[in-house]
Design brief:
2 domains, 296 residues, globular, DNA polymerase, domain 1, hpI Integrase, Chain A, mainly alpha
């Protein structure tokens, strides 16, 4: 079973060009499923039936796994069985008629413009690390990048003269995102006055570096943003994705069109971007109820 899995993950990487994070997620979900087959059911992959897969999902549900987790796991399992059936490694695809459980759409939590500004002002610009942190936070809010895209940026991916960055999103798809003048200001400050104090080697081309002179990790940046979020005591958890959600919502609130926001976020399907229109409608309703003399 492990040989088939390795071949499948290689297929996803080479032929479908999936990003490393996606490959790791698929691999993790499928190894857990294969472990269930062998240890709990004493089955080979070719012996699995639709009932086997449903039983696995029910076990996950009983353990308190979220609907989103179940859907993601089923998507990985369905894709794997489809691959095995197409390659004639198994006689049939037992997941052919299985549908993912319906997920309740939860609106993302966002920050107000004022709270974003408070967060961005937290780093101490007297130190190289503080300048780096300010540049990363400004860049994140200016572009709505995913944290994995932010920490993967190379020095050649950003052009402060024209005000654009190039990044690679899900499925290694390249997109160009504009930069505002404030983000450009702090990125230039970092490049000109701080990065050289963090770099361990002249050959290191990752843009944002940790105190070891290597590229900052996703986990490293999560810790950074958590530290600054705690210092402004908002009473809610703030993650890099909170800034991404805030970026999109603030754009729409100020008149940006949905297609442009979709392009900047790197969403393949505009329906993913449309969740932000619910947030802006709520904001409009709030303003109306607060301002109109006959609203209450």
């Amino acid at each position: 079973m492990q040989d088939n899995l390795s071949e499948y993950l290689n297929y996803l990487s080479v032929e479908r060009g999936l990003a490393q994070n996606t490959l790791e997620s698929y691999g993790r979900d499928l190894r857990q499923f294969l472990k269930y087959l062998s240890e709990k059911k004493n089955l080979n992959i070719s012996d699995a039936t639709q009932a086997t897969v449903i039983g696995y999902l029910l076990q996950m549900q009983a353990r308190g796994k979220a609907t989103a987790t179940l859907s993601r796991s089923l998507a990985a399992i369905k894709s794997y069985f489809h691959f095995l059936a197409r390659e004639e490694r198994i006689p049939r695809d037992p997941t052919m008629n299985l549908d993912a459980p319906k997920q309740e759409k939860r609106l993302p939590r966002i920050l107000s413009v004022q709270d974003v500004e408070r967060l961005l002002e937290q780093p101490d610009l007297k130190s190289p690390v503080g300048i780096r942190d300010r540049a990363m936070l400004e860049l994140l809010y200016a572009t709505g990048l995913r944290v994995s895209e932010l920490v993967s940026l190379k020095t050649i991916d950003i052009n402060t003269e024209t005000g654009y960055i190039k990044c690679f999103g899900k499925g290694s798809k390249e997109r160009i995102v504009p930069l505002g003048t404030t983000a450009v200001k702090y990125v230039k400050l970092y490049q000109d006055h701080a990065r050289k104090f963090l770099a361990a080697s002249l050959h290191e081309n990752t843009l944002f570096l940790n105190h070891h002179g290597k590229g900052l990790t996703r986990q490293g940046f999560w810790k950074i943003i958590k530290k600054y979020a705690e210092s402004i005591q908002l009473g809610m958890e703030i993650t890099p994705h909170t800034i991404r959600h805030s970026f999109a919502t603030h754009l729409l609130e100020n008149g940006a069109d949905l297609r442009s926001v979709q392009e900047m976020l790197g969403h393949a399907d505009i329906s993913t971007t449309q969740i932000y229109t619910h947030l802006t409608k709520d904001k409009i309703k709030e303003v109306y109820e607060h301002s109109h003399p006959r609203a209450r």
